[in-house]
Amino acid sequence: MPPCKIAIAYHQGLIRALLRNIVAEVAGAEVAGEACSALELLELLKNSVADLVIVDIDLLKKRGIKTITQIKHLFPKIKILAVHKSRPHVSHALPRCVDGCFSIEHARGELHAAIETIQRG
């Protein structure tokens, strides 16, 4: 099975490093690239292959639902997971085209499970 390629988009470098380390723990998963803004994420996806995007919900607020809509339109097969500090905040802010969410406090377990689900198809 080919590796699950993951793009990470988070505004804080420390959190991107945490997410990168968690992805490295999952067999068959690899980081395809990183971005710290919505525009950078769109450029990254145009220039690399990704199966999954982990995106900071705060990035979505800055560019709104437009960024997610663009990603889904340009790259319809990419799955999108939104991450934030608290699940209630994420749940209320999610556009319908986001495939899932997890809180940073539970990132290790929830991200492992999400990646494995995507790998299974």
CATH topology: Rossmann fold
Structural class: alpha/beta
Helix proportion = 40-55%
Number of helices: 6
- Largest sheet strand order: 2-1-3-4-5
Strands, count: 5
Low-confidence stretches: none
CATH architectural grouping: 3-Layer(aba) Sandwich
| Overall geometric form | globular
List keywords for this structure.
121 residues; 5 strands; five-stranded parallel beta sheet; alpha/beta; Rossmann fold
Compact summary:
By secondary structure, the protein is of the alpha/beta class. The chain contains 6 helices and 5 strands.
What does this protein structure show overall?
The protein has 6 helices and 5 strands, in the order βαβαβααβαβα. With 121 residues, it is of the alpha/beta class. It has a single domain (4-120), classed as Rossmann fold (3-Layer(aba) Sandwich), CATH 3.40.50. The protein has a 5-stranded parallel beta sheet with strand order 2-1-3-4-5. α1 packs across α6.
